[in-house]
Amino acid sequence: MGVNRVFFYARSPPYRNTRLTPEPPGPKLRITEIFRSIQGESTRAGLPCAFIRLTGCSLRCAWCDSAYAFHGGQDMTTSEAVERVLALGTELVEVTGGEPLEQEAVYPLMERLLSAGRTVLLETGGHVALDRVDPRVVKIVDVKAPGSGMQHANLPENLDLLQPHDELKFVLADRRDFDWSLDLVRGRRLDERNTVTFSPAWGMLRAEDLAAWVRDSGRPIRLGLQLHKILWGDVPGR
């Protein structure tokens, strides 16, 4: 496709021998993959982005497209992970999973990336409290609609912790999901402070149907399409 994609998978050896900055003993990160691609979602869709995908998630959404990150992975120190991410040379970095906030070491990881001058996006399922996340991080919170099977895991209090630069994402499987999500957005006036995106679950809801519903909703909701899947299909690590 003419897009330069560089991958550092967790099973690969270190990309070079280098002296990492010493860090105090503490929890390591469990990482599935680190790679460079095009940001496929959010208001930054289309921009070059480095991704660091952490391993493990306690949720089991019906439409999950990263189930390969539930298990496995490789342990890395924060220094090693930051070094590999910075070597990819992008200003934009996304910390994703799995569910990254289920790992204690994600907090120093994000702080070190911020200190290195990167714009840090955090993709989170919304079932872990956001109160410890550095306010400079752009949080992209995935609110679980009924079709996910994980609606019970939403933490309503997280919605009160959002800053104006944070974003909300609803992945929808059908019209019921859309109506439920629209009622929540209206009731809490979520789209008056934050960007709200409605995205079709891949292979479950036609994008053109969701586009029509968004168009007719009367709300400033953004239609979200997964550019990486349009470009490369439903392939892990893209």
Describe the protein in words.
This protein has 238 residues and is an alpha/beta fold. It has a single domain (6-11, 26-232), classed as Aldolase class I (TIM Barrel), CATH 3.20.20. It has helices spanning 78-87, 106-115, 175-188, 207-215, 227-232, and strands spanning 6-9, 29-38, 48-54, 74-76, 92-96, 119-124, 138-143, 167-172, 195-200, 222-223. Strands 1, 2, 3, 4, 5, 6, 7, 8, 9 and 10 form a 10-stranded mixed β-sheet that branches. It starts with 5 loop residues before the first strand and ends in a 6-residue tail after the last helix.
Oligomer: single chain
Helical content (DSSP H or I, runs of 4+): 10-25%
Q: Hey, roughly how much beta strand do the residues contain?
A: 15-25%
Summarize the main sheet: 10 strands, mixed
Succession of helices and strands? EEEEHEHEEEHEHEH
Unreliable stretches covering 5 or more consecutive residues: 1-20
Number of strands: 10
Quick recap:
This protein has 238 residues and is an alpha/beta fold. The protein is 21% helix and 23% strand.
Topology, please?
Elements lengths: L5 E4 L19 E10 L9 E7 L19 E3 L1 H10 L4 E5 L9 H10 L3 E6 L13 E6 L23 E6 L2 H14 L6 E6 L6 H9 L6 E2 L3 H6 L6
Helix pairs in contact: 1-2
Keywords:
238 residues, alpha/beta, 10-stranded mixed β-sheet, 5 helices, 23% strand, globular
